[in-house]
Amino acid sequence: MDLQNQQRVKDAGEKYGTDCVVILGSSDPEGAEIYAETVTAGDPTYAGPLAGVSLELPVYHIFDPIIRAECDPAAWEEQISMMEMVLEPDALAEAVKGMREQYSKNVIE
Amino acid sequence: MSKVGIKSYSYCLNHAPETGSHYGGTPYEAYHSGKEQEYLDALPKHIQSYDHALHYAPNQTYIGGISYEEFEALPSGWVNNPLPDDKSKRYGKFGELMPEDEFLGLISACDEFELVWLEKSFAENVSKKLAEDPVITEAIVKRVLRPKNMHELSEIETEVKERAGLYLYNEGKVVGCIRSGHPTDHCLTAHVLMENLAGKASGVLALLHLMKNSGMNPNDLDFVIECSEEGAGDVGQRAGGNFAKAIAEVAGCVNASGCDVRGFCAGPVNAMINAAAQVASGARKNVAVVAGGSIPKLYMNSRDHVKKNLLALEDCVGSFAVLLVPDDGTMPVMRLDVLGKHTVGAGGAPQAVTSALTFEPLQSAGLTFTDVDRYAPELQNHEITEPAGAGNVPLANIKMIAALAVMKKAIEKPAMMDFIKKHGTIGFAHTQGHIPAGVPFIGHACEMINEGKIKRAMIIGKGSLFLARLTNLADGASFLIEAPEPVKTESTLSKEDIKAMILETLSEVAGRLN
Fold it and tell me: How do the domains of chain A map onto residue ranges?
C-alpha cells in the first residue's frame, strides 16, 4: 500500500476508530492480503506511516458477499460486474478474511 | 478523408545497463537515500550482457528481428530460452538494438550546449563504431568528434567533483560526464539533462530508421510530433519542449517543423490521432510521430528482481517512430472515424474505461468485438512486471475486453478464453511508460495486414494521470488500423463524364453538319 493511502487510512482510523471499515479493491490475492495486514496489524514492509501502527480496522474486499449485498445492484452491474468475470472474487475475499479474523477488532454483523 | 496511410514505422532499443544502474530512478533514489546499500551492491550481479539482450525474444520482437507470430509461438520463460544466433542480430526489420558505448556517442552527438564530455580515446573509438551503423550519417559521426565534446579524464573528474556533473560509464570505467546546465536551476541539473538528452538521442535513432524504412528523403518530412514522457525546460517553463524539432534537426529533416504532445502512457495514441488529423485535413503533407525513451525507468522494478534473484531486464531505452501520409489505397490505414475517447465524466472504473476505449467506438462504427482481429493494449513484457507484483498487464487488459464482450452479448461466457487467445497480444515492450502503450504493435499489425493474416487491429493507450498530482482521472485513447481499400481516383470518377462529353460534342458536330 502506497504511503499516501496509508496516511489516509491512518487519519481516518484515528478519527473514527474501529467503526471505520476499509474496503479493498486490489486485483490479486497476495496484494489484498498485504493491504489487509497493513490496515489491521500494521505495515509489514515497515516503509509507511502504518509501520508499527495496529489500527485493527475491520477490512473487507469489495467481492466479499457481505459488501456485495450492501451495494446497489444497478451500480454493481455498471461498475464492477465486468471485473467480477476477470478476477477471482472468492480467492480475494478469502485472502482478506484471513487477516480480518486475525487482527480486526470489529467486524460487520 | 477519415483515413490516413501508415507508410512506415521503426522501433529501436538502446542497451544502457551501466547508465541505468547508476541513474535509473530506483537505483538513483536508493543511492541518495543511503539506506539500500545491499540492493545497490547486488544489482550489478543481476545485469544482462548486450549479447544476452540480443538473444532475448521480446527485444527481437520489438525491433522486428522476429515476426509477432514467431514470438507468439515461443515457449514461455524467454530468459531461459534464448533465440538462436540467426534470430539475434543487432538489426531487425524495424530498427536496431544499439550497444551502450555507441548510445553514449549518439547522446554526445545530440548535444548542442557542451553538456556531454566524452574522454578523447573513447569518443574516437565510438565514432568509428557509429560510422558502421547504416542509418548514422557522416554529419552525426563528425559531431561525436567535436573538440568541445572531447576532454581529458582529469577535466572530466574536475567537472564532476567541482561542478555537479555526473559520470558516464562503460565497461566499469569512467568514459565521460554530463555537465550541470545551471548552478542553481533544479530543472537543468546533470541528471535531468541526461534524461532529456538520452530521450532526444533515442528519438533521433528511431527517426533515422523511419527515414530508411520508408525510403523518404529527410528533406521531404513535413512535421514531427514527439510524444515521450520527458519534460525539457528550465525553471521558468519546466516542460516547455520542444523535443520534436530538436530530434528532426539532428536527423537532417531541414524542412520539417514539430511539436510535443504529452499524456503519460496515453501520449503516443493521442499523438497518432493528432498527427492523423493533420494529414487527413491536408494541414501537413506527412507527419512522423516519434518518441525517445526514458533513463529514469531503467531498472524501475529491479528491487524485486534482485530480491527474487532474477535478471534485472529493464536495461533498454526504447523508441519508436511512425510515418503517416494521405491514404492512397496501397498501405494499411488508420481510421479517424472510430476513436476511443475516455471522457472526463466516464469515471475511473475499469469497466467504464474499457467500454469507452473498445465497445463505444466499435458500436458507433457498426462493428462488434469479434470484428477486431487483434487488440493491442499496454504491451509491457510480463517477465518484467510479474515478479514486481504488477501482473501480466496485456493479459489483464484483454481479459477485461473479453468480459465486456460477454456483458454486451458479443460472445458467450464459455468462449471467453478462446477470445482472449485469439484476439489478445502478448507484451514484448520494455517498461518505458509511453513505449509499451499499444504502439509497439503498429508495425507488426501492418506486417500482418500486408500479408493478409489479419484485417483489423485496435491500438489502445492508457495513462495514469494521478502521477502528476493534478487530477485523479485516468486517461485513455484508441484507434483502429485496417487493411487498405482501393481509393477511387479522379480518372476513374471522370471516365463516364469524359465519355458523355465526347458523345455530346460529337452529337453537336453531327447536328451542325446536318
Answer: 3-103
Nearest to B350 among A30, A31, A83 (CB): A83
Contacting A with CB below 8 Å, chain B residues are 347, 349-352, 354, 389, 391, 396, 399-400, 403-404, 406-407, 413, 416
Residue A47 touches chain B, beta carbons under 8 Å:
no
CA distances from B266 to B117, B173, B224, B382, B442 (A): 35, 38, 18, 19, 15
> Is B285 in contact with B252 (CB distance < 8 Å)?
no
SS3 state at B439: coil
Close Cβ partners of B441 (under 8 Å, ≥ 6 residues apart)? B68, B374, B376, B379, B425, B457, B459
Give the pLDDT of residue B486: 84
Locate the chain A residue with the closest alpha carbon to B414: A85
- Taking only the tens place, the pLDDT of each residue in B45-74 is 999 999 999 999 999 999 999 999 999 999
Domains assigned to chain B? 333-488 (3.40.47)
Residue pairs between chains A and B whose CB atoms are closer than 8 Å: 37
Question: Chain B residues with CB inside 8 Å of A27's CB?
Answer: 391, 396
Determine the Cα–Cα distance for residues A31 and A40; give it in Å rounded to an integer. Answer: 14
Closest by Cα among B11, B212, B208, B204 to B97? B11
Is residue B240 helix, strand or coil? coil
Assess: ipTM above 0.90: no
pLDDT tens-digit profile of B212-255? 999 999 999 999 999 999 999 999 999 999 999 999 999 999 99
- Is-contact B312 B387, C-beta < 8 A? no
Looking at beta carbons, which residues of chain A come within 8 Å of B354? 82
When the pLDDT of each residue in chain B is averaged and rounded to a whole number, the result is 95
Nearest CB among B352, B389, B400 relative to A86 is that of: B400
Residue B293 cell numbers, joined: 525513451
Contact B403 A28 (CB under 8 A): no
Per residue in B70-104, pLDDT (tens digit) is: 999 999 899 999 999 999 999 999 999 999 999 99
- A79–B396 C-beta distance less than 8 A: no
